[in-house]
Amino acid sequence: MFGSIAAGVRRAFPGVGSTADGRDESSDGGGIGEAAGSERDEMPGRGYARDGAPVHADGADEGVVFIVGMRINSFWKLHRWVPVLLAAPRLVRELEAEPESALLGSWTFLSPPRTIGFVQYWESAEALQSYARDPDRGHVDAWRTYAERGGDGAVGVWHETYPFEEYETLYSDVPPRGLGAVAGTDLVPATGASETGADRLDASGEAGERGAVDSG
Predict the structure, then answer these.
(1) Which regions are flagged for Basic and acidic residues bias (predicted)?
(2) 154 and 171 share a domain?
(3) Which residues of 138-154 are buried (b: 16+ CB within 10 A; e: fewer)?
(4) N or C: which end of the chain has fewer CB within 10 A?
């Protein structure tokens, strides 16, 4: 049963590719923002380093990480959780189709056997909240449907929002995903002053402080 459910999820959610322990089992694609490699040492937003050396994401000084998911609590109550399952990819496709979308990047994760979700990158918390509350967009109807069908505990939903403040990343011999695949970030060699995670985290914090001063 679990195998057939997982297969259905993969068809409904292109880019599902992470197991519960975080191992990537997908192909090189993973949703919005991922693309094939580049031959440059510094690649705007995506690709491998030319010589295979590790790279890291730079320039993502503003925005939020939004993690949202659903948990199937009662597998046999298909009429409760299937509509929730099918609504999520529709919302992502809606955002993908908008040229001015505030969604910068998104990828899907699967934590068998019960949890499916998205890790998303948005321009700001305000833009995320504006989308969620807009009656002309799909989220309002999707939430109303969940509220009407919920109440018996058959399916649950959850989300977390984290502003970009300090972060560090590393991509070695993989197509960058997550923040490294977000529009507006650059991938630069993880060498010199950016060689260690602590170095990259310090540099991120300093960039955030400069941005706060510039906008003050």
Answers:
(1) 197-216
(2) no
(3) bbeebeeebeebeeeeb
(4) C
CA–centroid distance for 23 within its chain: 15
Say if 99 falls within a structural domain. Answer: yes
What's the domain range around 193? 47-59+167-177+186-216
Distance CA 28, CA 45 (A): 15
Query: Based on the domain organization, do 16 and 86 belong to the same domain?
Result: yes
Reading the block at residue 114, the tokens are 């019960």
User: 169-185 pLDDT, tens per residue?
Assistant: 888 888 877 888 886 77
Report the distance separating Cα 92 and Cα 120, nearest Å.
10
Encode pLDDT of 7-17 as tens digits.
Answer: 554 555 554 44
What does 39-67 look like in DSSP terms, one character per residue? SSSSEES----TTS--EEEE---S-EEEE
Domain count of the fold of the chain? 2
Counting every residue written for the chain, the total comes to: 216
